[in-house]
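Re: that chain you flagged

S.,

Sorry for the slow reply, it's been a week of failed gels. I finally had a moment to sit down with the sequence you sent. For the record, here it is as I used it:
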Amino acid sequence: MRVATTQVYRQSLDAFATQQAKLNKLQEQISTGVKINKPSDDPAASTRILELEQTVELYSQYQTNIDLAESRLASQESAIASMENILLRVRELALQANNATQDEASRRAITFEIEERAQALLALANTVDQNGDYLFAGFQNQSEPFTENTLGDVDYVQFNGDGGSRNTQISQSRQINVDTQGRDLLMAIPSLVGLNEFSTATNAGNAVIAPASVVDNVNYIADTYTISFDTVSALPDTVYNVVNAAGTTVASGTYVEGEAIEFMGIRTSVVGVPANNDSFTVSPGQYQDIFSIVNNLIDSIQSASTATATGSYTFGSAVTVFDYSVETASFEVDGNLISLNANYGGLDGLTTEIQNQLDLAVGTGIYQASHDGVTVSISQTTTGPASAAPVVNNFNGDVDGNGTPATSGSATSLAVSVLDYSGANDISFDVDGFQVILDVNYATVAGVSAEIQADLDATAGPGVYNVTDNGINITIARVATGAASTAPVINNPGGTGTNQAEFTGAATTNGVDAINTVADFTANGVSVNGQLDSSVLNANIAQALDDLDSGFTKLIEARTSIGGRLNALENQYEDNDAYILSTQKILSLIRDTDLAEAISRLTLEQTTLEAAQAVFTRITGSSLFSYLR
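Prediction finished late last night. Pasting the structure tokens below so you have them in one place:
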């Protein structure tokens, strides 16, 4: 067989090229550290490598998500921890304020610090994360979630966020919540004095009600209360009436937009113009917000530290010490001033003081002060220039027969025929549980009668009662049978009969008839305004402490939840790291160059190439002539 020289050359060159390609590939694998540099090197392995690289990238993103989630949750935990410290300090200050040794100045200082703590609490509630998103706003994280607002006389904090929660993917099969809901954390603190406010759906006016809160835990009674407005029968005034669930009137007054409306220890406010028969409901709720809890505490302490004596009296506190030492309180007996300006341990001391004052003012033995354990009575024992029945202008008398103080406006104290009930507070009394309000000037008793008739018609139905007067006394008679007795039950401010309210043109003070001879100082609690009523302060602070504890519990629960999630993130980070490591190991086995093996093969292939080249040189250097020679 003939072998052409050109064929030998061509075969040799092809072999050299193939061997050189092998060398080049091995050198590339060694230099790059990767044995599959293009899909054609190993299509099946290339597909597997792509899958593994994508898995590593995906889990690396999970790790980034975990880092971001940890940062956000850590910011929340830090903010909540600061809130806990604030509540602990506020609780400590509340206990200090409740100490009887505190004076007005120290309590005022306490309120100043609590106010600062309240502002710090609000600032923490509006904390932002590293991206500028509000931590406790839900999905509305670009807007401040907690803002201060005022509606009438009521200041409150409004929540503007929502209940949304964002979840972050931290593995192929797991997401974790990275939000703490601000509404649940700060606006839903369990409380025994939580309240709900509702507008009646049929309201035609534009009035709105402010959040209600309990400001007097001594007199608070949990019930459903309805505030209704009368814009017709009480013209030119709009009046409101507050009734409980049983329909009993518990408060009433002339509506002044924005002014506080208080009843049964509750305070709220209404702003706007109500239509006739518009109403709002205040009922027991389950929750209070933490800001109201702190603000109510501030109000309670401020009330104790800024009260000033006015010479009037407050009923209802179960105390037996009568303290008139803050500012002298006084009333008149036949024009002679009786001043009370010391502490009295009971009715004995009080009666003795009144007797001493009477003796000094009008002469020994003219008047006799005595008590029956409940009421101090003044009688005349010696005739003199005064009338046989002493005239006691009793500004703190039991004006409606059931222990309610005379806090209403007063009739004129001069013997004139104008009865003036237009003071800052209206005079009112009850007829069979229906409230009658006197809130304007009346030139005659007939005007008072007409007003009483109008009020009864508006509250009890036309024609049920008939109001008449003889120019001196007003008589109320029942003219239609019904649930009430035929003889109306009148809680009578100064009247002398069970069926008549006595309003005269003679001298009266605070609605009490001038011929009343009983100065009503009861052992169940008379204290001059301005002297701290510690029972209310104690009750309010006790409730505030309970509510602060509930708020603290809420914060602890939130921190516990955040701590659990941070722990889960840490564990998941370790799991992801382990998975990435194992995936990278498999990827390395498939993709990376085994340098020892590659170098050995490179040496072998290079030796093979050199040997082939040497053989080729010898073959190409030989010829027939050389052979023949």
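What I noticed first: Confidence is low (pLDDT under 50) at residues 307-321, 384-418, 420-425, 492-533.

Talk soon,
D.
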